[in-house]
């Protein structure tokens, strides 16, 4: 089902897609189309003059054409003089020349528009500059048949002069179609620039949502996109609809994070605080919180007494060191005892040097690496 609605400020062509979704295409008025056509005419004139000069000055056929034009003009003048300034004969010659020029102009103009509409998917250079595009009434790109039909119909739109018929057709058509558009089933739409995305205002120093490391790891790109899309979309919806969507998304995020209850009864505030907390922790170069008190309180006495690691040493155990330790422990379980001891000893010595441990860690390399890995995993700084 196709229908066209016409707004005083922004006329649109509305239709239903095969999926029963209503789509609105902004229709352009006569003024932008006239401007685009004027640009195309100027380009065609420049191209014609350039090609004519090249042909006449460089190609052998150009000399022949030049001589033929010169002889035709001379013969016309002589015939006019011989007929004692016979105005009828002179008028016939003028009419023939005008007809030839109009036919040439029509052929060149039709070929020009067909070429550009096929090469650029419905856009001539003038339409590109003005921001227009020719499409089918169902919103699909035009094909060769459609382009040929709509451009051949220019012979009717141009009548009686200066596209008067085409202009009248556009003015009385709800979709701004000239005769060629009606016959070919096309419309000319505006390529309006989409509005910039709604700027989400986030609290700068929000502490309403506190996430653990495990909870932060559960929030990936899809969850972030859900939060941003929801906050942007609900800003332009009715209050009732907005509250319903915010409640659904807030409940989804609560279950995702494993929260017993929402920290804020206002779902919109909760989602904004959550997004602000996640973005702040993910921002490159964001300062990490000072965990000296936390480390000193949580550090197990057994680990401190067996390894003697300070907070600064624990912070030196990054992802690479932890991966090295895990790989060595896993690899050692598949080797013979001798090779396993050699591998574990090498990795243990590497870690001893990395942590600058002055005292030897003993002969139990596997136990040392396991204790070291446990300490690193327990006290690693948040991402």
Describe the structure.
With 383 residues, the chain is mainly alpha-helical. The protein has three domains: 2-190, no CATH class; 213-282, no CATH class; 301-379, no CATH class. It has 18 helices and five strands. The chain has helices at 30-58, 60-82, 87-119, 125-130, 144-152, 154-157, 164-172, 179-184, 213-217, 221-234, 239-257, 267-282, 292-298, 301-307, 311-315, 319-332, 337-355, 365-379, and strands spanning 2-5, 12-16, 22-26, 132-136, 186-190. The strands form two sheets. Strands 1-2-3 form a three-stranded antiparallel sheet, with no helix packed on it. Helix 16 runs antiparallel to helix 17 (337-355) and helix 16 (319-332) runs antiparallel to helix 18. The longest helix is centred in the N-terminal third of the chain and has 33 residues, at 87-119. The protein is elongated and about 125 Å long. 20% of the residues are buried.
Summarize the structure.
This protein has three domains: 2-190, no CATH class; 213-282, no CATH class; 301-379, no CATH class. 63% of the residues lie in helices and 6% in strands. It contains 18 helices and five strands.
Summarize the SSE layout with pairings:
Blueprint: E1 2-5, E2 12-16, E3 22-26, H1 30-58, H2 60-82, H3 87-119, H4 125-130, E4 132-136, H5 144-152, H6 154-157, H7 164-172, H8 179-184, E5 186-190, H9 213-217, H10 221-234, H11 239-257, H12 267-282, H13 292-298, H14 301-307, H15 311-315, H16 319-332, H17 337-355, H18 365-379
Antiparallel strand pairs: 1-2, 2-3, 4-5
């Amino acid at each position: 089902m196709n229908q066209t609605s016409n707004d005083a400020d922004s006329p649109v062509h509305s239709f239903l897609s095969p999926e029963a979704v209503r789509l609105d295409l902004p229709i352009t008025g006569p003024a932008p189309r006239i401007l685009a056509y004027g640009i195309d005419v100027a380009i065609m004139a420049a191209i014609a003059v350039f090609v004519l000069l090249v042909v006449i000055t460089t190609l052998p056929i150009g000399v022949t054409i030049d001589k033929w034009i010169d002889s035709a003009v001379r013969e016309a003048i002589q015939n006019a003089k011989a007929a004692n300034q016979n105005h009828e004969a002179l008028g016939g010659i003028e009419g023939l020349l005008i007809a030839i020029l109009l036919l040439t102009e029509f052929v060149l103009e039709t070929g020009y528009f067909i070429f550009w509409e096929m090469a650029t998917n419905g856009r001539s250079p003038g339409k590109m500059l003005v921001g227009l595009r020719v499409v089918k009434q169902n919103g699909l790109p035009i094909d060769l048949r459609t382009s040929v039909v709509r451009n051949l119909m220019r012979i009717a739109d141009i009548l009686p002069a200066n596209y008067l018929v085409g202009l009248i057709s556009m003015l009385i058509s709800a979709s701004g179609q000239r005769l060629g558009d009606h016959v070919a089933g096309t419309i000319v739409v505006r390529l309006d620039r989409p509005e910039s995305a709604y700027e989400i205002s986030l609290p700068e120093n929000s502490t309403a949502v506190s996430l653990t490391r495990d909870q932060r790891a559960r929030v990936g790109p899809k969850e972030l996109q859900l939060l941003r899309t929801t906050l942007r979309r609900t800003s332009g919806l009715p209050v009732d609809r907005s509250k319903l969507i915010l409640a659904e998304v807030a409940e989804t995020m609560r279950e995702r994070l494993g929260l017993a209850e929402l920290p804020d009864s206002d779902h919109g505030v909760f989602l904004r605080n959550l997004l602000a907390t996640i973005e702040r922790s993910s921002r490159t170069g964001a300062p990490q919180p000072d965990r000296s008190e936390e480390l000193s309180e949580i550090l197990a006495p057994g680990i401190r007494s067996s390894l003697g690691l300070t907070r600064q040493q624990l912070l030196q155990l990054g992802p690479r060191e932890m991966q090295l330790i895990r790989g060595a422990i896993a690899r050692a379980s598949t080797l013979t005892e001798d090779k396993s001891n050699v591998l574990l000893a090498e990795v243990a010595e590497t870690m001893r040097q990395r942590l600058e441990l002055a005292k030897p860690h003993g002969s139990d390399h596997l136990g040392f690496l396991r204790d070291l890995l446990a300490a690193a995993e327990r006290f690693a700084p948040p991402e």
